[in-house]
Specification:
about 400 residues; alpha/beta; TIM Barrel; two-stranded antiparallel sheet; 14 helices; globular
């Protein structure tokens, strides 16, 4: 097993809170510090993350930064990914009418496999926005209308119905909803905006309206211990093509001071665990790379300017047409190198290709190796902050002081 990593220790004090998402202390009662004072929650989470990271090999750390898709109707197949590739997350792709009770049994087996492999559970993610984008519709789940309809509800109604839906997901073993959509689509652009507007996936037609609802959804989800991933940064509300089916998605308007960033800022302020990167192009932010591969967007804008300290997750880097010209392994390397933390591919077969590429690049470049460790630390820290895993008092007492 790997020893305590310097890069992991350096980042854990900032990553451990996971964008502000609160959770119970890493162990029942935080251990005292060297001075005898009780650990604060962030200190306990930081130390627990350091303990868990110290137990991971470089190969296991490369697995932690991958979230790989499996069919939603056969979620139990993710156990193989957890065992063979030590992935940090699984994404239930497609649509399923499996009941919440059956899904919970399947996912319990997946979590058992993950804990046996690395000692760390996986994040189990779905797209459960409402309307057309709703992975799970079996008995026990709450059906929601599209976000545009949700945006017409009162704040109290939106909060209550979001909490009910989130509670059902958590009861079934889902830990992460790849929502809410934080993109703003103007009324005049709805018909010409394929990824969001045509399916009514936006909460509002103005940034302020969308921001208010996004904040409500994030807060309500967190209240039921369901992590969220606000998407698709820095926004898909102005594009005229869908990155899933085209490489021509371009937003030639958005700047670093754009008002359409307000819903993303609201999600960060409300404690979203993750922010999902778009795979479109934004020439005024980066003239050369798509957002997912852009340090200017993922690191400078999102982390430095908007002060996001949680997990940066990609949109699909597996089957999306926007990535078709980039070799599979290079997609993972470029995303992590740009400042991303969790690589999402809906294609199950991509797990070994991406992990191998990440390990090869880490062996070639010490700088990339540090970046990979930083990303893995953020992913693990997010799980600690979300209450998915904790540490004993003895582990906390023995951990390096990092926060």
């Amino acid at each position: 097993m790997a020893g305590t990593d310097a890069a992991a220790a350096a980042v854990v004090s900032t990553a451990s809170v996971s964008g502000g998402q609160s959770a119970e202390p890493a162990s029942g009662s935080p251990s005292p510090t060297a001075s005898g004072a009780p650990l604060t929650r962030p200190q306990a989470q930081a130390r627990c993350t350091a303990v868990l990271m110290a137990g991971l090999t470089r190969t296991e750390r490369a697995g932690q930064v991958l979230m790989i898709g499996v069919p939603a109707g056969s979620a139990g197949s993710a156990a193989t990914l957890a065992t063979r590739y030590q992935v940090g997350g699984v994404f239930l792709r497609g649509r399923s009418t499996v009941s919440a009770t059956v899904l919970r049994r399947q996912l319990a087996a997946v979590q058992t496999a993950s804990r046996r492999a690395t000692g760390i559970p996986v994040h189990v993610a779905v797209d459960q926005e409402g309307g057309k984008v709703q992975t799970l519709s079996g008995a026990g789940f709450v059906t929601l209308p599209p976000a545009r309809t949700q945006g017409t509800w009162t704040t109290a109604t939106l909060a209550a119905r979001t909490r009910a839906a989130a509670k059902a997901l958590r009861a079934a073993g889902i830990t992460l909803n790849l929502a809410p959509v934080a993109d703003t689509v103007a009324v005049a652009d709805r018909a010409s905006n394929p990824p969001i507007g045509r399916s009514a996936r936006e909460y509002g037609s103005t940034p302020s309206a969308a921001a208010a609802d996004v904040a409500t959804v994030v807060t309500a989800s967190r209240a039921e211990r369901l992590s969220t991933a606000a998407k698709h940064f820095p926004g898909l509300g102005r594009v005229r093509a869908n990155t899933d089916t085209s490489a021509a998605a371009v937003d030639a308007v958005t700047t670093a001071r754009d008002t359409n960033l307000a819903p993303f800022t609201a999600s960060i302020d409300s404690g979203t665990a993750m922010v999902m990167m778009s795979s479109a192009r934004y020439p005024k932010l980066d003239s050369k790379a798509i957002a997912a591969f852009s340090p200017a967007i993922a690191t400078t804008l999102l982390r430095r300017d908007l002060h996001f300290t949680g997990v940066v997750v990609s949109d699909d880097l597996g089957n999306a047409k926007a990535l078709a010209s980039v070799p599979v392994g290079s997609r993972a390397v470029r995303f992590i190198g740009a400042g991303g933390d969790l690589v999402l591919s809906v294609n199950t077969a991509h797990a070994p290709l991406m992990r191998t590429a990440l390990l090869a690049e880490a062996k070639r470049s010490a700088t990339f190796a540090r970046r990979l460790d930083e990303a893995a630390t953020r992913v693990v820290a997010g799980k600690v902050a979300a209450g998915l895993i904790g540490c004993t008092a003895a582990q906390l007492a023995a951990a390096p002081v990092t926060g």
